[in-house]
Amino acid sequence: MRSMSRPAHLALPLLAAFLAACSPVTLRGSGNQYWLKSSSAVILTTTDSLIAYHAYVRSLSGAEWNRESEQVREAVQKDGSEFQRLRLAMVMAVPLTGPREHARAMQQLEQLERETQKQNSSLHGLIAALKAELAERRRLEDALRDESRRADDLEQKLDALKAIERNLLERSQPPPPPVSKKRR
């Protein structure tokens, strides 16, 4: 009986050590993570935090985006970490920004991809996914623009055909008979 209590006695410190290993990781260079909802689960990794930030940035209105963009640019100037630079790329890549910002975001992502590949960083996969998302969005925007031009061209051709048809109908109708004035 005595031998059973000894393993049970050792199990408690072992369990405490395992639970301590599961505690949240403090993210270096991440600062205040205001984009996390207070009711959300504990963020364990930098990647998890950045995924939450990506969702947060995509939900911002124009004025909110402007404030966030300025705040992130200042953070990049102060810190310059991969974390902050990736946040900046995410801010520049949101759908409400234009092609110039998207091009800058793509450049930032390509530079980060090269750096993280050399360092074997855990952010490499996230960066590659964001880069692929941005490239796909650009491809879809280009396709939409091409289809819109094509639809406009077809609309113009249809209007021209309708005008020709009206013109032909007017020509094929005989002129109305002259109105005779009856004298009473």
UniProtKB/TrEMBL annotation:
It comes from the Bacteria. It comes from Denitratisoma oestradiolicum. Residues 173-184 have a biased composition (Pro residues). This is Lipoprotein. Residues 165-184 are annotated as: Disordered.
